[in-house]
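Subject: 15-cis-zeta-carotene isomerase, chloroplastic structure
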Amino acid sequence: FNGLPLCSCSVNPILFRSLPFLSSNTWCAYKTFFRSLQARQSPQRGAKPTGFSSNHTLFLRRFRARSSLGDAADDEPPPLVGEDSAVFELAKQKIASWVYFSVILGTVLYVLDMVWIDNSTGFGKAFINVVSGLSDSHEVVMLILIMIFATVHSGLASLRDLGEQLIGEQAFRGLFAGISLPLVVSTIVYFINHRYDGQQLWMLQNVPGVHQLVWLSSFISFFFLYPSTFNLLDVAAVDKPKMHLWETGIMRITRHPQMVGQVIWCLAHTVWIGNSVAVAASVGLIGHHLFSAWNGDRRLALRYGEDFEVVKSRPSIIPFAAILDGQQKLPKECCKEFIRLPYLASTALTLGAYFVHPLMQAANFQLHW
């Protein structure tokens, strides 16, 4: 099939219809696809025929993706093109790797505290003072902090391929984290310390059910936010950092889970706080994640090419939309994809973060940022 000339599409459907192993659903997928090829190849009046694309491999991948959706009677999802996410096999773990991870984590936190967080030795307070001096408005300062972080974070992500070629994957990951972490800490601390300093727009905290709704929404948001850190050894550059093409678990529900999780978190906290600082923070964070979703797709397309196009065609951006319209076919035991250690760890950390909220707020207040 890969070697056949595709310019004679009027003959090919007849050829394929004669094959005995094709089901009726598969034949419908073939016929629909060949008609789309004919329409694409038919030159408009006055235009010169351009012929079909020479990229037969891309054609085959897209064709297989469409034909697999046509076999609805089989009730089986198409085979994975990307990676199975959140897989953690205890037998494959090396004690030395996790000891190394603990040493790196402790070192990073110590350096971050000394160089940035501690007001007596670090530059964090000076950075906040400089940005705060740009405006008397907490809303404007909040947006500026988010813009600085977003520019650096997305800018370095866009330069990842070039940076890894120049200094290597692990060195670039260290540079990326070393610049991004102080900026994100500053942004979070400023938000926590000034979240109630804006203009109050509404007050729903005493409305029955609002606290439960905000808590549940925030809890759910972390299941979407977590896929960026499925492999902690990869994040800490203990393992060789890799740009992953995840395809299972939460990735079946939405193609951009981190963006969806950030939107849910922002909406929940904006409803709860109800003032202009919360609105400004939400606008900045959602805007950054919308751009990051587009930029992430662009980078994955450059890295994975045809495989990304296949994975992209399956889930939707809006959660559950592709599942409801039949575009994304779930395996029978897809729930088991969530009963894995990374998701269980995310659940424990989310619950822990909720219960230590008072300690987090007190620690941030002590910084006077």
